[in-house]
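Attaching the record inline, Q. Sequence:
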Amino acid sequence: MPTSPQINPPFGYQAIEPFLRNQRVKLPQAGALPEFARDLNAIPVSYTEFNVAYRDYPLVFSSGDDGKTFAPVAVLGLQAKENLFARNDGWAPGTYVPAYVRRYPFCMARVTLDQVEQNERLICIEKGYVAGDAEGEAMFDDQAQALPRWTSIEKLLQEFEADLERTREMCGILSDYGLLEPFSLQATLNAGGAMQLTGMYRIAEKKLELLNAGQTKNLLKKGVMGKIYTHLLSLDNFGRLLDRKAALQGGAGA
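Structure, as predicted:
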């Protein structure tokens, strides 16, 4: 007998359900942060986000399977459960807010049927944000036509999901070409004490020189070469994270 479809929530989401057009939603206030983002020291970023996120964050690669697959993340803090960009009233002003945060409480979730992950994605919502008529906001009108608020949300969801496919392709190429190497970061904090970040991967610059002409051409054709140098430039932001941490500890509210 076929089993019921299983919906696999993305990291940080508690309990999600498929979003229906007749549901009303209690949307977060503009700029509000989901609770899971307040104590993350890294958050996923996608292919296109490299172009803007590198200005504020170190962009590194992580792996949850000992280097078999990789995913890019923006480093937000220097210690576990430390987000140096989280504020009581939202994200730190003047810094890029990752799409992973902006799409909440919606997401595109993977569905597993009979232990096989399906290709299609399902638009879902965190259950706690489904609301009654009195307190919720409609996303569709009585004729089931999308209202402007939903149009912008759906565009973000679809663009982010499509961008994740390009991200997976990029990481696959970097892995196949053997360009990623593990690294760690050690620093002494101004307030005293030492810290160490581990489990990160970066592009090994010297290995770029060993690529053959076909590999180099493919990196350029796919737009990956630009992301490589964006990533390398972003690593200077580890120093800015240290400065931000020092300023926060000093009460400057960076």
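Residues 41 and 82 are 5 Å apart (CA to CA). The two ends are 57 Å apart (CA to CA).

More tomorrow.
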